[in-house]
Amino acid sequence: FPFYYELKIAFVAWLLSPYTKGSSLLYRKFVHPTLSSKEKEIDDCLIQAKDRSYDALVHFGKRGLNVAATAAVMAASKGQGALSERLRSFSMQDLSSIRGDSSSTVPPSVTVRTSSKQSQPKTSRSASEGTGSSGKC
């Protein structure tokens, strides 16, 4: 189509020009009568879209909360062992055995569980043999 871009620029200039008021003319002649005749249908479509969007928001909100709750429960159940191990590693029994306090109140028959990454505390065998216990709890 010859002179397409030139005609397009001229049309846009006609629409934007305050002297010709091309956009106002197009709106009054074509857009406003079409919108006025279809106003009822447009309002019905807007109401249906609003209802559908609210229902979709509620539906996906419930699903999102269910997924989040399930993930939280799964994380808590899987992480419970790791959490208790970490809390156990900071217990007073571990701290007293690391410091080497001889005045600790920990009975000699109690064994201290440590993870494989931590070094085993050194305990004297004479203390556990002196109680006469067989090593069973």
Q: TL;DR of this structure?
A:
The protein is mainly alpha-helical and 137 residues long.
Distance linking N and C termini? 97 Å
Order of helices and strands: HHHHH
Number of extended strands: 0
Spatial shape: elongated
Q: Regions with pLDDT < 50 over 5+ consecutive residues? A: 126-137
Structural class: mainly alpha
The largest sheet, given as strand count, sense and whether it forms a barrel, is: none
Mean pLDDT: 74
Assess the beta-strand content as a share of residues. Answer: under 5%
Individual helix count: 5
Helix fraction, binned, reads 55-70%
- Please tell me how large the radius of gyration is: 40 Å
Subcellular location: Membrane
Membrane topology: Multi-pass membrane protein
Pfam families: TB2_DP1_HVA22
Protein name: Receptor expression-enhancing protein
Question: Which terms summarize this structure?
Answer:
mainly alpha; 0% strand; disordered C terminus
3D structure, described in words:
The protein is an all-alpha fold. It has a domain at 9-94. Helices cover 69% and strands 0% of the residues. The radius of gyration is 40 Å and the shape is elongated. The N and C termini lie far apart (97 Å). Mean pLDDT is 74; it is low at 126-137. This is Receptor expression-enhancing protein. One of its GO terms (biological process) is endoplasmic reticulum tubular network organization. Residues 102-116 have a biased composition (Low complexity). Residues 96-137 are annotated as: Disordered. Belongs to the DP1 family.
